[in-house]
Every structure is written in structure tokens, then in C-alpha cells.
Automatic annotation (TrEMBL):
Record keyword Calcium present: no
PROSITE patterns assigned: RICIN_B_LECTIN, WD_REPEATS_1, WD_REPEATS_2, WD_REPEATS_REGION
Name listed for the protein in its UniProt record: Anaphase-promoting complex subunit 4 WD40 domain-containing protein
Keywords: Repeat, WD repeat
SUPFAM superfamilies to which the protein is assigned, alphabetical: WD40 repeat-like
CDD domains per the UniProt record, alphabetical: WD40
Keyword Zinc-finger belongs to the record: no
Residue span(s) of domain Anaphase-promoting complex subunit 4-like WD40: 44-94, 173-260
Domain IFT140 first beta-propeller: 313-416
Domain of life: Eukaryota
WD repeat copies, ranges: 1-38, 39-80, 81-122, 123-164, 215-246, 247-288, 301-329, 338-372, 374-408, 426-449
Length: 449
């Protein structure tokens, strides 16, 4: 079972995003209990994951400071935001989905303009290290929980500090946009963000010393859920401070939680990799199986008789279009995530690129075929295209290079282009002398091979 690092409901509550330790993000349909999409991300540690308010995209913040925005339907990275130099600590979308605020260990709060892909403002506050932040519903007010034990309320339009509350380190807004929930050293508090007044309450009704892992507001703001390291989940009435529901059955640390928008469902991810969807009223849980093998890319052969399907474990399956039978499984020299496929013009060869930068080419007619291996890219292969005569193969990758490989010389591929952007589409001219390439900086370039 794979570990689940992060789990998060989409804004409508019909889908769930999970990040697994296999470096994939899985999108689940909660009504059908089925995996809709699975796409490979980076192998680095994912620090934070956030849905865009319209539910069509996800933002990921990484250990090296990179922020990426992913199209949920296609699984493609549509925007990379570079500026932080160290781990992204926290992020929050503006309500309109056009801005994203983020903070890392090394730098102040950044407010990003997503249409331009740049940070248009570097907030001058807070002046201490921020551990968490969140927009209020007005899209202007920002709460920042700092490691010196204060919560600071900022107006992002003029960088004005509106309120500072001491003694807390983790915070989340009530949906009313006026009230904050905070956590510090096992103590939960509710704050009025305007007056700074605090109402403190906490009682787990247990003599055991157990750490609180995560807490989340219910969408109506009248209750909240707490998840504990021993697997207990509790739902609390905000007005009375009483626990109104205890959800038990999994003796494993709760890693992450997210409410459905109607407040009736609670999704929880556990340390050992389980994901459970709790019905809060009945106390019953539905387990989601998160190790379903999902095809990562498809390509039909020129004769339209076979479809090739890449997978997460490095196997390429060939399927008969008419009968639906799997005719052959092509196994590579490694079990890397297959990211793209390209058939040779005569249909006898099949090229596959993977998430580690490796390209392999199989002779499809030979069941015992060992692939030819082409090494040169240092990061995920994005696109493969054969020349019309089948003598050369062009490739682009996340390492921002375009390479041309000669099939007569295994392992040889010269660098045709180096760019400050990533090639997202390729096309050969009919005579094989030129390559047109589209890049994620919105440029179209024409190369002479």
C-alpha cells in the first residue's frame, strides 16, 4: 500500500485529490468510488496541495521552492512559478482563482498573478517566518500563522497589518471570513479577527497524551473536525465546545482531512496509505483503493490495428482495436513511469519516453525484443515525434532541451535546442529538414535539423 501524503476535496465535494508516495496525484470520483485520473508529478517532496476555487486546476508547492499549476483533466502542468529558493511552506488561492499567495522558508509572502505567471507583489509582512496562511472570503484579507506564536492579519492590497494575536502557530479561517481557528501545543482557540478576542476550549476526554495531527472547519462554520495520531477523529460543536461525534476504526495516524461542501462527508488520509470517506451522521466509512494501475498515455499505430498504452510501472501494453485483447506487453530495462509514446511511420517500431528522461524503442513484431535505449535527457520526457522517413526521432523534456536521435546509432542524440522553456509540441517538415516546436513560454520556433 502506498503512503498518502495529502488528501483534499475539490470545491464541489464530488472529487478528491490524493498525492501518493509514488509521485502521482490521483483524482477520485466520490460518487462512483473510482479513480478518474492519475498523473505523475515530480519525484521531489510535495509540501502543499491546493485546489483552485473552480475545481479545474491544482496548485502544488515543492521542497525546492517551485510552484506548479496542473490541469486536472489532462494532468499537464500549465504554469510553473519560480521565485522561492527553498521549500514552499503554504499556499492559498484568491477566491477568483486569478491570484495565489505563497510563502517559503527563505522569503516573504509572494502574491502571484496566474495569467502572467509572476509574483506582482512581495509582501513586506509578516517579518517573521510564516508557517501557514489563508485568504478570507473577501480576497483581500490574509491570515498568517508565524513560528513566533503570533497570528497576523494583513490587508494584501496595501500591506497593512490589521491585527496581531500572540500564542498560536497554525490557523484556518471560518467560512464566515471573520473568525479564525488556531492551534498551538495541543490547544485549540477561536479568535475574532477584528477585535483579537480569543475563546479557548479543549477537552479530548482522555488521560492519554496523544498529538493532534490536523483540524478542519466544517463548511457552515458551526463545527470542526480534529484528527489524532492514534486514528481517532472527532467533530466539535463550536458554540458549546463539546465533541458531538467520534469516528473510530482505523488505528493509524490521521495525516490529512477535508470536508465535503455539504458537511456530511469527511475524507481522511492515514499514515499507512489508507484513504477513508466517512459519513459523519452514521459513523460509517468507505475505504478507497488507491493502488489501481492507470494507463498514463495512449497511441494508435499507423495501421489503426493496435493501441499502445503506457503505464506507471514501465510496461507498454499493445491492444487489438477490434477484439479488445491485449496482444503483447513490452517491458523496458527499468520500471519508470511512461509519459509519452510515438509509433514509427511503418508501425514496426514504438518509442516511449519516461519520467526519468530515458527513451526506449521496441521492435513491435518481436515478442522477445529488448528495447534500444537512448540516454541524454536528465528530466521527464514530454514529447516524441518520428521524422517522416523514420530515420530520426525528436524529443523534448523538462530539462528544457530538444534532442534529435539517429536510429542508426543507438544511444546517440544531439542537442538541437536549449531553451529557458519546455517544449510541449513537435512537428517535422515532410522533407525531414526542419522541426517546428511549441514551448510553454508561448513561443513557436522553427529549427533546421
Amino acid at each position: 500500500m502506498e503512503d498518502i501524503e495529502i488528501v483534499f476535496f475539490d470545491p464541489d465535494g464530488n472529487r478528491l485529490a490524493c498525492r501518493t508516495d509514488s509521485s502521482s496525484i490521483e483524482i477520485w470520483d466520490l460518487r462512483q468510488a473510482s479513480c478518474l485520473h492519475s498523473f505523475h508529478t515530480r519525484d521531489d517532496h510535495l509540501s502543499v496541495l491546493r485546489w483552485r476555487p473552480d475545481g479545474k486546476a491544482l496548485a502544488t508547492g515543492w521542497e525546492d521552492g517551485l510552484i506548479q499549476v496542473w490541469d486536472v483533466e489532462t494532468g499537464r502542468c500549465v504554469r510553473s512559478l519560480e521565485g522561492h529558493r527553498e521549500e514552499v511552506e503554504c499556499m492559498s488561492w484568491g477566491p477568483d482563482g486569478k491570484t495565489l499567495v505563497s510563502v517559503s522558508i527563505d522569503s516573504p509572502v509572494r502574491v502571484w498573478n496566474l495569467s502572467e505567471g509572476r509574483s506582482f507583489k512581495h509582501s513586506h509582512g509578516p517579518i517573521t517566518t510564516v508557517k501557514c496562511l489563508e485568504f478570507a472570503s473577501d480576497g483581500k484579507t490574509l491570515a498568517a500563522g508565524c513560528n513566533d506564536g503570533t497570528i497576523q492579519i494583513w490587508n494584501t492590497e496595501d500591506d497593512e497589518l490589521q491585527q496581531s494575536m500572540k500564542g498560536q502557530s497554525s490557523t484556518t479561517w471560518n467560512p464566515d471570513g471573520q473568525t479564525l481557528l488556531s492551534l498551538s501545543q495541543g490547544e485549540m482557540s477561536i479568535w475574532n479577527s477584528r477585535s483579537g478576542e480569543r475563546k479557548k476550549w479543549f477537552d479530548r476526554t482522555s488521560t492519554d497524551i496523544v498529538l493532534l495531527s490536523v483540524l478542519r472547519w466544517r463548511p457552515d462554520g458551526k463545527a470542526l473536525a480534529t484528527g489524532w495520531e492514534d486514528g481517532l477523529i472527532q467533530v466539535w460543536d463550536v458554540e458549546t465546545g463539546r465533541c458531538v461525534r467520534s469516528l473510530e476504526g482505523r488505528r493509524d495516524a490521521v495525516q490529512c482531512m477535508s470536508w465535503g461542501p455539504d458537511g456530511k462527508k469527511l475524507a481522511c488520509g492515514y499514515l499507512q496509505g489508507d484513504v477513508r470517506l466517512w459519513d459523519v451522521d452514521s459513523g460509517e466509512a468507505q475505504a478507497l483503493e488507491t493502488r489501481i494501475r492507470v494507463a498514463t498515455c495512449f497511441k494508435q499505430d499507423p495501421g489503426k490495428k493496435l493501441v499502445a498504452a503506457g503505464s506507471q510501472n514501465g510496461v507498454v501494453s499493445l491492444w487489438d482495436v477490434k477484439t479488445g485483447e491485449c496482444k503483447e506487453k513490452l517491458r523496458g530495462i527499468v520500471e519508470n513511469f511512461i509519459t509519452c509514446l510515438s509509433w514509427h511511420p511503418n508501425g514496426c517500431l514504438l518509442a516511449a519516453g519516461d519520467n526519468k528522461g530515458l527513451i526506449q524503442v521496441w521492435n513491435v513484431g518481436e515478442s522477445t525484443s529488448t528495447p534500444n535505449v537512448f540516454e541524454g535527457h536528465t528530466e521527464e520526457v514530454l514529447m516524441l515525434r518520428w521524422s517522416s522517413d523514420g530515420t530520426s526521432l525528436a524529443s523534448t523534456a523538462h530539462d528544457m532541451t530538444l534532442r534529435v536521435w539517429e536510429m542508426s546509432r543507438e544511444g546517440h542524440g544531439h542537442v538541437q535546442a536549449v531553451s529557458d522553456a519546455r517544449g510541449v509540441c513537435l512537428s517535422w517538415s515532410p522533407d525531414g529538414r526542419h522541426i517546428a516546436s511549441g514551448w510553454d513560454d508561448e513561443a513557436l520556433r522553427l529549427w533546421e535539423v
